[in-house]
Amino acid sequence: MGQVILITGPARSGKSEWAETWARESGKTVIYVATATRNPDDAEWQERIQQHQNRRPQDWVTLEVPTTLSATLANTKANSCVLVDSLGTWVANLLEQDEVSWASTVAEFLVTVQLVAADMVFVAEETGWGIVPAYPLGRKFRDRLGALVRQLGGMCDSVYLVTGGYALNLTALGTRLPDSIDDE
Question: Any idea of its EC number (predicted)?
Answer without folding.
Answer: 2.7.1.156, 2.7.7.62
